Amino acid sequence: MADDTPKRVRTRHFQRAKENGIKITGLTSYDMLTASIFDAAGIDFLLVGDSAGNVVLGFDTTLPVTVDELMPLTRAVASTAKRAFVIADMPFGSYEAGPDEALHTAFRFMKETHAQAVKLEGGVRSAEQIRRIVSAGIPVMAHIGFTPQSEHQLGGHVIQGRGEGAEQLIADAQAVEDAGAFAVVLEMVPSAIAARVTEELKIPTIGVGAGPHVDGQLLVWTDWAGFTTGRIPKFVKQYADLATTLTDATRAYIADVTDKRYPAPEHEYDG
Length: 271
Ligand code: KIV
Prior knowledge:
Largest sheet: 8 strands, parallel, barrel
Bound molecules: 3-methyl-2-oxobutanoic acid
Shape: globular
Helix content: 40-55%
Distance between the termini: 54 Å
Structural class: alpha/beta
Order of helices and strands: HEHEHHEHEHEHHEHEEHH
Radius of gyration: 20 Å
Number of strands: 8
Oligomer: single chain
Number of helices: 11
Mean pLDDT: 97
């Protein structure tokens, strides 16, 4: 939305961006400092993802993440961002039981964190939950394709929508649009299928490993900034190398302290 700069990004700006062919930009954020930097730099939306499980809380998957763990992170981001639209991710086990549970969780995020929308995983299987949340006045971003909360059922990090999976993906996309989602994340989907979904849907598609023919892009900020150590998915472009920067800084600090170069006179208080 670079050439359409609202004071505060709203769902209507997502829709307008799609209609005008302007790409939407998003990053995850889990804290006040990154939220402040990304927001001031002009990012359109910030997702407080349950990827916090992997990159903040130290779990192997997103499955153990709880609503109570995401609450303070979401509140920090939502109370910091001035322009970006802030979306709270609903964690595994907080909405699947049915529309009542989903609405209860969405209410908690909206009242206690001041996020402007919620996100949940699943297409056809989550349509009733989306419908109920939207009917209460809460915008929902849907998430289909590879859905990390189902990784054990999907057999690991497997690309979705290939071969016969294409029809299921299209059915999922149509179901979340019909249920009232304002946008849909397509994660790890072949570019050609993502292009077809983007063409067929009225709501914007946000790609995470879905190629260029979508309405916007989203990345986990620690992958994007080279902060994550370990395996980085093929679809990620790294825009910085924070892991190396911090490793070098740590080594320099250890050397300075052990060799008595730090603190120097300019770091001392007089008197
Ligand atoms: O939790 C998250 O960061 C996500 C995105 C990768 C879509 O769900």
